[in-house]
Amino acid sequence: MAWTEGSWFAPIPRDSAQLAACRPSRDQFPALLDSIDQLRLQGINNYISLPQIIVCGDQSSSKSSVLEAISGVSFPVKSNLCTRFPTELVLRRTPHTSAGVSIVPHESRPEAERKALLTFREELLVERAKAEMGITAYGRAFAKDIIRIEVTGPDQPHLTIVDLPGLIHSETKNQTTSDVELIQDVVQSYMREPRCIVLPVVSARNDFAHQIVLKLARTADPSGTRTLGVITDTLIPGGGSEEGSWSLATRDAEQAEFFGSGVWKTLPLSSLGISKLRSRLSKVLLGQIAAKLPGLVHEIDQKFQSYRDQLEKLGKPRAGPQEQRIYLFHLSGSFQALVKASVGGNYNDPFFLDAKTESGYQQRIRAVVQNLNEDFASEMSLRGHYFQVIDPESEAVPSDSHDVVCINRDDFISQIEHLMHRTLGCELPGTFNPMIVAELFLQQCRPWGPIARRHLVVAQTVDESTAKMLQYEVFQPAMNGVLQEMRDKTTELLTPH
């Protein structure tokens, strides 16, 4: 097994001096790594990208063998099987050896299923964990839940690695198109995390250009700043499962002999073998955590403050009907007080903001209505008459309104005389029918209706800061009713004229 940081993989810090300059002390590393793991167990990774190492590769690229060699724990690897779920391998150096398995439910799981999966905690029984997640040979093929394997011992490094399901090139008899898409979605979602170190495992038996994992890794990390490649040299074709030939006990010896011969002797020893990879991964993870820690703490503080503000806005819990009634009572009281202050012109409450701003002005109802009334009066004065009589000898400028008809004084008098002749009644000679006044007034005030209706539409205001549910379910229907009543009243007042 060899690993590389060359060309595309190059930007990861290379020597111990670079790593030491950006990392906390070695004594602090276990506690720091445990803190990151605890954040992940609490689901913080669903909201904030956390530093971690992910192992990904094509199906049967010996990913499980890599994890097995790193941890010393035997995984259920068979020639016809592959990883069916993300596996989080937690390694810690302790005086005593122990191993256990738990399940971290995916956020999409219903609450009841999440609680059931969280209760699962056994010794190293991977097959039973698969059954708990609903993965069977003839049923569900893959799961987004994470199986968490914790291994401690005096020879273990301080390391946390996530092994992802192997990428599938095309559907098969036992793996559908949806399985192919699901696995790619899972792998890409992990790769896109900006604080995630990608460990693509490629098999020396397969064509380098045809391995999907490299394309996905380049897409997620074009510069290669957080990518560390691993090349596995599996058995020759037809050799069977690796476990059938090399046991865990003899693997290191076989590996040392293999890399001590042939072209492998020309490569740096620091890039060959599982022990060097194990040490290197621990250093890289420490360097990544140290480099990203300030930004991570800052982002957590920002998220914490944001969610705390949201919780404060929600107020105290309102679990029962009585608490809900009390909350609505206080809400309606506060709303009534604000409306009363706004209508009365008392703008001392911070709600009214700065009068110099548009939002602050719009919340001051009395000022808005009075200004609208003044605008209404000005519009009635300028455009509230149908005829504008122009004296030929006057220098007055005719109105520019399209609703006003400009007419010469002599022509207007002629129209009135013509109307008087056509409305003669029982009146004495030399007098006129008084109904002509009403008819002339009705004609002259013809623009009043449209102007009044436009004024009512402008004057209808709804507080935008009020919750949408209250606005659409309570206030909007009520305001529409008031508006309709005002329209009806306007029509009633104008009808006699």
What can you see in these coordinates?
With 497 residues, this protein is an alpha/beta fold. The chain folds into 2 domains: 309 residues, 3-Layer(aba) Sandwich (Rossmann fold), CATH 3.40.50.300; 166 residues, no CATH class. Helix content is 46%, strand content 12%. The chain contains 16 helices and 11 strands. Strands 1-9-8-2-7-3-6-4-5 form a 9-stranded mixed sheet, with helices on both faces. The protein has a two-stranded parallel sheet with strand order 10-11. Helix 7 links the parallel strand 8 and strand 9. Helix 12 packs antiparallel against helix 15 and helix 15 runs antiparallel to helix 16. The longest helix has 41 residues. The termini are far apart. 20% of the residues are buried. This is Dynamin-type G domain-containing protein. Keywords: GTP-binding, Nucleotide-binding. GO terms for molecular function: GTP binding; GTPase activity; microtubule binding.
Spell out the helices and strands N to C.
Answer: EHHEHEEHEHEEHEHEHHHHHEEHHHH
Helical fraction:
40-55%
Poorly predicted regions: 5-22, 239-243, 457-466
Mean of pLDDT:
74
- Tally of strands: 11
In the sheet with the most strands, the strands line up as 1-9-8-2-7-3-6-4-5
| CATH architectural group of the largest domain | 3-Layer(aba) Sandwich
Quickly count the helices.
16
CATH topology of the largest domain: Rossmann fold
Distance between the termini: 99 Å
Specify the overall morphology. elongated
Number of domains: 2
CATH superfamily assignment of the largest domain? Answer: P-loop containing nucleotide triphosphate hydrolases
Strand content: 5-15%
GO molecular function, one term: GTP binding
InterPro entries: Dynamin, Dynamin_GTPase, Dynamin_N, Dynamin_stalk, G_DYNAMIN_dom, P-loop_NTPase
Pfam family, one: Dynamin_M
Protein name: Dynamin-type G domain-containing protein
